[in-house]
Amino acid sequence: MTELPTVSPVPEFSPVPTFKDRRGGLIAFGILLIIAGGFCALSVPLMLVGQVAAAKQAGVATDYGTMFMCMAMYGALAAIFVCLGVGSIMARRWARALVLILAWSWLLVGVVGIGVMAVIMPNILAATQAAGGQPLPAGARAFGMFFALGCMSLFLLLVPLLLVIFYGRRDVKATCEARDPTPRWTDACPLPVLAISLFQAFSAASWLLMVLPVSHTVVPFFGCLLSGAAAILFGLVVSAFLGYGAWAMYRLKLAGWWITLIGVVAMMASGLLTFSRVDMIEMYRQMGKSEQQIRQLQQFSFFQGHSMMLFIVLCMLPVLGYLLYVKKYFRPQA
After folding, report:
1. What is the DSSP letter of 305?
2. How far is it, in rounded angstroms, from Cα 97 to Cα 110?
């Protein structure tokens, strides 16, 4: 009887990844994000000590409401940076999406902030000299501006740009999806829509922080200033409005897009109408600022009158353009 030839088993081959694994970069950038969170956490007690010392030196009462807002902001940033850093080290897809949103927002704020500082810094130096400071030579002023803008560019432009470049790479996206194959909540809607949804949720929380703990809450409202109970009620309504808009945008509801658009237009119109009639100094007085603080604000605050209106327009127009861009992701529901 003829023996059949033995057939050796075919070896199993694991699929070769078609992308370069970026786990090392995710760990390195994750550590940097955790370090940034540590610096933000360190700023919380430093701000507490600094605010109290500055109030004692100026002979005015400590503004605990504003101090609480700033401490809450830095504490939230510390928690966000640490969570994103840990998520990046673990190669989670939600961490990559949120770092991209944070980095793009950081970069845009840096561009606007450095542009504003480049315009107003010469006025700040001139106001300092007018207040009794020693006049600086032209070369020293130029070096001071260059050094200050250079340091700001390093933190506000270079760092977020590196994050955008790295986390925007296809290999990084593929690495996170391979190591974290389960779809996460950040995958429920396109990344541009998720960005504006999170921005609205952050704005809703910011309004609550602004109107609840601050005793002298003053908000602009279509040509007038609301204060006291009216300002608190208005802040709660705005917070609820923004919260619903964030949820509806995340769910890709067309009504959410319209609500957001109407809210942005109304906010811009309210700001322009109010600051065309009301001086910022009057707003500071209603907020309970002392006369010494008001004199300092008059000297160093350049966002008054037409400057404030121009600033509102320059900030709101990119938001309107972005809303028109993300409109393509929304479709009427059957």
Report:
1. T
2. 20
Please give the structure tokens belonging to residue 112. Answer: 């606007």
Distance, in Å, from the CA atom of 159 to the CA atom of 162, rounded to the nearest integer, reads: 5
Tokens standing for 93? Answer: 């897809």
pLDDT band at 251 (very low <50, low <70, confident <90, very high): very high
- Distance set, CA 293 to CA 107, 211, 234, 278, 301 (Å): 32, 21, 27, 19, 11
Tell me how long the chain is.
334
Pairwise CA distance, residues 173 & 272, whole Å: 42
The contacts of residue 105 (CB under 8 Å, 6+ apart) are 195, 199
pTM of whole model > 0.70? yes
Which has more pLDDT, 329 or 147?
329
DSSP 268-289: HHHHHHHHTTS-HHHHHHHTT-
Contact call for residues 189 and 38 (beta carbons, < 8 A): no
What does the pLDDT look like over 100-110, one tens digit per residue?
999 999 999 88
- Paired strand residues for 221: 224
State the first-to-last Cα distance of the chain, in angstroms, to the nearest integer.
72
Would you give the DSSP letter of residue 212? S
Name the residue type at position 242.
L
